[in-house]
Amino acid sequence: MIKPSMKPYILLIITILLVSCKTKTKESQETQALEISSSNQELVNVFNWATKKALGFVQTGKSGPINISERNEAPTEASYIPSYWAGYPLRTAFYSRDFCHQIVGAHLLNLKEENMSMLKAFAASANENKKWYPLWAINFDGSPYQLDYRNDNDFVREVPAVFELVEKAYALYQWTGDTRYLKDEVLWNYYSKAVTDFIYLHDNFMPNKVAEGSGTGSIFKGTATFNEQRDHPFIEAGDGIACQYKALWAYGKMAEALENYELSAKFLQQAKDLKTYFNTKWGTENTNSYNRGYTLDKSPYSGWGKENSWFMPMKNITISTSEKTQDYLTFIDERLESKDDIPDNIEAISYIPELFFQYHHNETGWKWMKYIISKIDQTHAMSNLTGNNGNYPEVSYVLISNVVENLLGVQPDAANNKITTLSHLPLAIEDLEVRNIIIGNSIINLQHNKKEQSKLHYKKGKSPLSWEVRFSGTFEHLYIDGKKIACSQGQEYGQDFSYISIKLDPTQEVLVSTR
Asked: How far apart are CA 367 and CA 356, in angstroms?
């Protein structure tokens, strides 16, 4: 129940949600706004809704209240750092878990400084006193959000978020090519502590080089999992170990980008060793499926655990080409189809489309995308904090990344001015084009027609763009603007594909097809 004294602040928040930001950041969107065309009008409508909705959450250049929550009746005023809402709309803060899931959508909306500012705020909040945990939630002015922070020994913390911040920093580097993600001292110190000291300091009850939570289930003591709903009080969890694997890998890749090859080899090997440990012992011992967590008595648990189930294949710690992983994907889909097992909160389900598109289960990915779209106007599980599902920021930001990363299959490499694409269009979407996709300093338009044609317009850039265009299936030749060219073959997540690499000059447009 919201107290009457909170009503003025609720009205303020509603106003913020309804009015798009009139800031320099917003103005920059008007010149290079994302645009979409498709035979599927439902997708067009929801994408246009999502871009407008997501921009309405931007707080850059504003001042306003901080520490607003359902428990606080006396918020103070402050000037905001470059940021956007990532969490419940009643709470004036951005949360680490939500932020990690929203960063690609934010980048595509040209919120590059917001992403940098927010990541640095989390990185700077981690210190020796907190045993290198970052804050769980931060006010729009960059200060600790008091609802979730009491002192350095008593604050909300979840193991997977520590590692996701490292993984997503590398993702932002791939999208932007911005060397600050590699060379900023605050950021690099955080990455380094997360993959070294943090693991060492939180590996006490089951010494195995896997970071642990408290094993109590208390978010203020530290949980091993993102799943806060009716689960075992794990000391180690599937999403925690999976995110740790991805962080070790990302740190190794960032070291490689810095040409520190010795450091890179060390951490890429650690990532490989952790994956081997998972697939030979931690995740597979005494089960025909996958273990998803261990309790304080070192007992393993398999079965269904929401985030600590689907994060394992999503973060690639399982063997993607194995029959066991494919069976597990079927298990995840079946559990989500169950009224008893599907999460109540829409933001948890927002991970599911990317999981299935990643494994080329395009029809299943689209099924869950459509499920989310169908629930946008329905009441959120925490309606007193959010209202309708569409008011939860993660929904709009992630739908944007679903379209570009998942349906269009865009993999960026901004530092080398390179893009890789592969159509994941389901049968319900005959064609899809998104214009003004930002990759580093370049802007492209990309269009797929079914899984047979891909067209790229290199709209703006300073140097030649490398395009590796892929098509599902095995072909001896592909056609570049109608000209037959021999191509190469590869495999990703068990899916065979054929590809060809092309260099485009700025303003050039190229059509590649399978026939």
From this structure: 10
Whether 116 contacts 178, CB under 8 Å? yes
Q: Do 207 and 257 belong together in one domain? A: yes
Q: What is the value of pTM for the model shown?
A: 0.95
Q: Which residues contact 290 (CB under 8 A, 6 or more apart)?
A: 238, 283, 284, 302, 309, 312, 318, 324, 328
Q: Are 442 and 365 part of one and the same domain?
A: no
Between these two residues, 274 and 30, which has the higher pLDDT value? 274
Does residue 36 sit within a domain? Answer: no
Task: Taking each helix axis as running N to C, give the angle between helix 185-194 and helix 159-176, from 0 to 180 degrees, rounded to the nearest 10.
Answer: 140
- List alpha helices for 345-469, DSSP H: 346-349, 352-358, 362-374, 383-386, 393-401
User: Which among 206, 177, 194, 151 is positioned nearest to 413, based on CA atoms?
Assistant: 177
- Which one of 363, 387, 410 terminates a domain? 410
The rounded distance, in Å, linking the Cα atoms of 109 and 226 is: 27
Query: CA-to-CA distance for 515 and 507, rounded, in angstroms?
Result: 25
In tens, the pLDDT along 276-302 reads: 999 999 999 999 999 999 999 999 999
**Which CATH number belongs to the domain containing residue 269 in this structure?**
1.50.10.10
Q: Is 210 left (phi over 0), alpha (psi -120 to 50) or beta?
A: beta
Task: Give the pLDDT confidence of 41-82 residue by residue, as tens digits.
Answer: 999 999 999 999 999 999 999 999 999 998 876 778 999 999
- Domain residues for the domain of 52 are 4-19+45-410
Looking at 377, 410, 443, the residue that finishes a domain is 410
